[in-house]
Amino acid sequence: RVIERTRALDSALRFSENLVEQLPIPVWVEDASGRLTHHNRAFRDLFQIRDETWTGRPAADLLPETSAAVPFETSIETGTNRRDVIIDHSRLDHPAPLSDDSTGGGGRIGTITDITERKEMERRLRELATSDDLTGALNRRAFFAVIAQEVERSSRYGIPMSLVMIDLDHFKQINDRYGHAAGDRALKLTTQAMLAGLRDIDSLGRLGGEEFAVLLPQTPLSGALDVAERLRCAIAAVDIPVDPEPTTIRLSASLGVADRLSGETGPDRLLSRADAALYRAKDEGRNRVVG
């Protein structure tokens, strides 16, 4: 009976080890000193390691040291790239049943869930929710949300900020003469030219049709006027292909500039003054900056 029971226990142990080995999620076991005593195939595949290479080595060489409550999100190096993961683990108060080595009290068993694809999907969904489909600039809703946030920050800390309103001159004529495909191409190329001249902290939004706006944090009116002039020149330098090839055309733009005045805690007045400056630029002959 002892022999039969021993065989049954051995069989159960082999089954447990096989089961963990075949699990699709990475699993590891470490002893009380933090050294790896077991890791399954999914764990080895994630970190691109061989079994004999890492058994007995510190788990901290692969896994982040943290006192955070579990489970927790983090990023880890996996050999060739970084992966976004959720790590969960629990304390082992008894020797691990999955290894010949005893982990003793204080060891732990853990799992890793790779959420890289999920995080990328979330990022893309955020982009879809905040970006203009055609140009990639912020859409109207997202841009106004950014303005409100920046005005509040500027007001609280006394930091200058400015706004540039941009309208592409006579844009309707492109659609009428060359077709909407040419108009779309013009909007894309113009957006790329503007983005190339902006800082990472600046925000470009498409408010609708051929109207854009640029938010310039930490920028007084004088600096914003310089930026606006550079944007005007960049737009004017874009060659836009139209049919018949190799014909190209160029656009001009009217720009209105305003900065946040002392005491303004909301975006409405700033938007109104920048818009009024834009209309003055149009009234004065277009293809110019007014602030």
From TrEMBL:
Domain spans labelled PAC: 74-127
Gene3D superfamilies referenced in this protein's UniProt entry, alphabetically: 3.30.70.270, PAS domain
InterPro entries: Diguanylate_Cyclase, GGDEF_dom, Nucleotide_cyclase, PAS, PAS-assoc_C, PAS-like_dom_sf, PAS_4, Rev_trsase/Diguanyl_cyclase
Example of a GO biological process term: cell adhesion involved in single-species biofilm formation
Location of the GGDEF domain: 159-291
Catalyses which reaction(s): 2 GTP = 3',3'-c-di-GMP + 2 diphosphate
Superkingdom in the source lineage: Bacteria
Single GO term (MF): diguanylate cyclase activity
EC primary class: transferase
EC assignment: 2.7.7.65
Cellular component GO terms, alphabetical: plasma membrane
Name of the molecule in the record: diguanylate cyclase
